[in-house]
Design a protein that fits this description.
The protein is of the alpha/beta class. It has 16 helices and 19 strands. The protein has helices spanning 42-65, 80-86, 90-93, 125-135, 154-157, 161-172, 194-206, 217-231, 237-242, 257-263, 279-291, 315-323, 331-346, 371-385, 473-482, 489-500; strands at residues 2-6, 20-23, 26-35, 38-40, 71-76, 103-108, 144-146, 148-149, 178-180, 209-213, 244-248, 268-271, 302-303, 361-366, 389-397, 419-429, 435-442, 447-454, 483-485. A 6-stranded parallel beta sheet has the order 8-9-10-11-12-13, with helices on both faces. A hairpin with a 5-residue loop joins strand 16 (419-429) and strand 17 (435-442). Helix 6 (161-172) runs parallel beside helix 7 (194-206). The structure holds zinc ion (ZN). Zinc ion binds next to strand 3.
């Protein structure tokens, strides 16, 4: 998380000079694997973020001298639980850095192994396996979110070849979104064609976001037509309800009014990588002027991304602009752009299909100081470090859609919209693949709740939105009927560990 400090009083927002805030940052565009001279792994990502922080510090000095900053970046700290996970093993401990960015959306390059020699095997099969290997195991699973990549043109080789690979990636590997690259996979002319449409429709049905590479406004318009055609097809009702499309690189057209017309579509968003220098003010000023509050609020439409390793430190231009006097949005706008929007679009906790269901359990106790929760977390982390269980993901609870708050100063708790004390751990037993959600959250009156839930079936948790009315009624009823009140957090930890084993 990036710690920033107000350089003066901002009375309109009740901010005082010296107030410090925590910003939780998500990189929504990041490649791993290898393509020609490009190579990247989790360690490479964290080193890159350390380098970005170094560059931010350098530019901060200059901008403070020019009195250009409204918020001064002063420090970087890791979120407590992910950082503690890294410290449970010596070999992981040395990767506990680069916390400028807290969560990274990772997808393959057009890898050296993306095209199979066997014509009947889907492109990117090996690449998707590798992304899952990196992103769904401790400790990286606390920081990385894997997206699949497919080539829609595989559909012309064999019907459902690309769609099946997408399903395998999401339902078996546990990847959580899809990257499509019309230029690299040579389907710019076929974006509105049947092959791409089948893949994007299936992504909508699976409820996962799709990020498209876009290099110009005509690609953007084609994608808008594709979304429209899915919306207008009565057979695609489920798909359009789940469909969210992110235009990477903002179509490289931040000054084109047609980009903002497209963004009025409730299913379409943009991501900032490649924008630098003067593009940056053009993007944010145009978005604010042209979108305003039509449909979604303008700052809910923009996601921060780096496109590492194709691009490197130019992502700093976005961060510094947001902190500068030039940016006319609020800290809340900043937090949505830098991380909230990406997490809200991903929305659901990690899960894979076809796992045996477990008998759900629900425990509640009082934890006045929060120290009991730390002990419960330590017991769970020790399960992982003992190698019996793997941690597939750590997903924090989020504000319900369209309710993202203004961040609070650290002196008043520092809440920035990410519920760092309320989250879902997805555990997978190494010996038999059993999978479960451990859902820990703070309740009213210093209560601490811990539920053990199936990752499949009717009583699973299917949103990270922290509001009881967002929880499906079957799960709500279950929690009501099966609650066990325990005398202490230690009793809770013992019970939870006993049940898990
Ligand atoms: Zn890229």
């Amino acid at each position: 998380m990036l710690i920033v400090r107000a350089v003066e009083d901002i009375p309109t927002h009740n901010i005082r000079k010296g107030d410090e805030f925590r910003l939780y940052i998500v990189d929504a565009h990041h490649h791993m694997g290898k393509e020609g001279s490009h190579r990247n792994t989790p360690a490479g990502a964290y080193d890159f973020y350390a380098q970005l922080w170094f560059e931010i510090q350098k530019q901060t000095k200059q901008m403070l001298d020019d009195d250009a900053l409204l918020f001064e970046p002063v420090n970087v700290v890791g979120p407590d639980l992910p950082s503690r996970c890294f410290r449970t093993r010596d070999s992981w401990n040395r990767l506990d850095h680069g916390w400028l960015v807290d969560r990274t959306v990772v997808f393959p390059y057009t890898d050296d192994y993306s095209v199979s020699e066997n014509r009947n095997e889907a492109s990117f099969k090996v690449s998707n396996d590798k992304i899952a290997g990196w992103t769904t195991r401790a400790p990286h699973s606390t920081r990385l979110i894997g997206f699949a990549r497919v080539d829609p043109m595989d559909e012309s080789v064999k019907e459902n070849l690309a769609v099946d690979e997408l399903e395998r990636s999401i339902l078996e590997l546990g990847l959580r979104g899809l990257k499509l690259h019309p230029l690299a996979q040579l389907f710019v002319e076929s974006i509105e064609g049947e092959q791409t449409r089948s893949v994007v429709t299936r992504a909508g049905e699976l409820g996962i976001p799709v990020i498209f590479d876009t290099r110009n406004i005509s690609t953007v318009l084609r994608i808008r037509n594709l979304v429209d055609s899915i919306r207008n097809d009565p057979e695609c009702g489920t798909a359009i309800r789940g469909l969210r499309v992110i235009l990477a690189h903002c179509g490289m057209s931040p000054g084109d009014s047609r980009l903002y017309d497209v963004l009025r579509d409730p299913a379409i968003f943009i991501e900032t990588s490649t924008l630098h220098d003067l593009d940056v003010p053009v993007l944010f000023e145009s978005a604010k002027d042209r979108l305003g509050r039509v449909g979604a609020y303008w700052s809910e439409k923009i996601l921060f991304g780096t496109d590492f390793s194709f691009l490197s430190i130019q992502a700093v231009d976005i961060v510094m602009y947001l902190l500068s006097r030039e940016f006319s949005g609020t800290l809340g706008d900043m937090q949505r752009i830098l991380g909230g929007n990406a997490l809200s679009l991903i929305q659901r906790p990690y899960s894979t299909a076809n796992k045996p269901q477990i008998n759900p359990q629900d425990y509640i106790t009082i934890d006045r100081t929060g120290s009991g929760q730390l002990r419960l977390e330590d017991s769970l982390l020790s399960l992982i470090s003992k190698n019996e269980w793997d941690l597939c993901s750590l997903d924090f609870m989020l504000p319900p859609n369209k309710t993202w708050p203004e961040p609070r100063p650290i002196s008043s708790g520092g809440f920035n919209g990410i519920y760092l004390d309320s989250y879902v751990l997805t555990l997978r037993k190494k010996s038999n693949g059993k999978e479960l959600h451990v859902w820990i959250r703070r309740g009213p009156d210093q209560s601490l709740h811990c539920s053990l839930l199936s990752t499949v079936g009717m009583s699973k948790l299917d949103t990270m939105e922290n509001a009881s009315q967002k929880i499906n009624p079957i799960l709500q009823q279950f929690l009501k009927d099966h609650q066990v009140i325990l005398p202490s957090v230690d009793a809770m930890a013992e019970m939870v560990i006993h049940q898990i084993k």
